[in-house]
Amino acid sequence: MTGIPPVRRTLLLVALAALAPGCGLAAEIDREVDPARTRTATPPRPSATGAPSPAVRPGASTPAAPDPAATAVEECPPSGLRVSTGAVNASMGLRAMPVTLTRCGTGEQRLNGYPDVRVRDVEGRPMDVTVLKGPEPITSLDDPGPHPVTLRPGESARSVFVWRYSAVDAATLRGSGVHVDIAPAAGAPRQTVQPDGGLDIGETGLLGTTAWKKVQD
User: Is the pLDDT of residue 169 over 70?
Assistant: First the structure.
């Protein structure tokens, strides 16, 4: 900036600061202040990773990462049967929960009777729960009773579990049936499910079941 009076140099610098962003007049002032181009342009800042930032076209959207839950495929157990539980229906201390058995393997599965059930606490220990074949004396819910049921691949059968509410410690889950082991019949392999909220059946209690009934489409 040699040769330019101090007052004029200051005015030029102020004008340059005000007009710098993309203005032709600012470029002219810059050439007058520094005709030899001795100032060096500031290099672009590298990205946080040290790698060049990819160019993004205006208006282009960044593809979302795939959702593992949306692409996950539920596996079929070795038995070829999958057990699932529905929401617990609570009314005046009476609880009812549907349990569905789906044939996910090949071939047919024959049922005739009631599920085989074991209830365990939050630590996995068996609870002193009496499992009944039928809903009485807990309630007079309709029970189809034992009858032949044949499940082909993709078909399901359903049982309904019923019980009465008993005091459960919400902090320790003492008295809650957190783990429920269910088999299609006595002697068959059990599958463990964890019903939403558990079975608030208490340390001792009764659990009624209805016989398997085919789910009609």
Answer: yes
Q: How is domain 81-214 classified at the architecture level of CATH?
A: Sandwich (2.60)
Helix (H) or strand (E) holding 209: strand 204-209
Q: Residues 122, 173: contact at Cβ < 8 Å?
A: yes
Helices (H), the chain: 6-19, 24-33, 68-71
Instruction: Locate the domains of the chain by residue range.
Output: 1-37, 81-214
Does the pTM surpass 0.70? The reply is: no
What is the spatial distance between Cα 140 and Cα 99, in angstroms, rounded to a whole number?
18
Note whether 209 and 135 are within 8 A (CB).
yes
Q: In what order do the strands lie in the sheet with 179-183?
A: 116-120, 179-183, 191-193
Comparing CA positions, the residue from 200, 194, 130 lying closest to residue 164 is 200
Residues 91-107 have a mean pLDDT of 93
- Vertex 73: Cα angle to 69 and 77 (nearest 5): 125
Give the β-pairing of 204-209 and 128-133.
parallel
Percent of the chain with pLDDT over 70: 66
